[in-house]
Amino acid sequence: MAQAASKECEICVSGPGHNYCEQCEQLFCDGCKISHLRTKMTKNHTFLSGPNINPEVKLYCKEHDENFIYYCMECNTPVCKICAIKKHKSHDFAEIKESTEGIKAEVKMVIDMKMRNLQSKIADMRPRSNTYQADVQKVIQAIKEEGRHLKEMIDKKVEGLINTLKEKDTRNVQTLQSVGNELKTALDKAKEQQKFYQDTQGIKDTTKLLQKLKQIKSQIDQNEENTEFLLCHQSSMPKKQ
């Protein structure tokens, strides 16, 4: 096998080996290259040319220590010339370079197709993603609006309850003030009756004393009824919690 460091023609060993035969894996000078391509068996060989050739190391058949030159179409494997005769005699073959180019083109086509499909799907996803995001924003906005509406309803309900309570409180305070005034009046009358009673202590006439006491008792009974009414009305008012 030709080495990358060799710069001489491996055929005449005199000229510079600027041409590398990919099938023979040898370096050729320009003259030997022309002669090689004129030969019937090697006229279709391909060359790499140039002053800085760096031939690729090719795989070879480890069983026969030969380069792979064919590709078995039935077994899907590269074979050397000995394998082609011994193991793949009746099989269909293609030159390994031709087969490689075909597979290379097929792989490229598959990759390109997959790339196009993926790019198409990505392109389709963008508007769907945008639509989804827009829908989410609409739902969020609707939730916020519903929240504001519920908050307004709660605020109105709370305000109504507070106003109702304040109105009742105002009426109750007025009632309490009125009851307080009535009780004060009743207290004043009770004081008067107490004074009347004290004044009777100096009456010696029993008949006159009895009449005076009956008069005081009648006033006390009337005053007691009014006081009980006021106290009963006071107890019926709602108590603060």
From TrEMBL:
GO molecular function, one term: zinc ion binding
UniProt keyword annotations, A-Z: Coiled coil, Metal-binding, Zinc, Zinc-finger
InterPro entries recorded: TRIM45/56/19-like (IPR047153), Znf_B-box (IPR000315)
Domain B box-type: start-end pairs: 4-50, 56-96
Any coiled-coil regions, as ranges: 173-226
SUPFAM superfamilies on file: B-box zinc-binding domain
Protein name: B box-type domain-containing protein
Species: Mytilus galloprovincialis
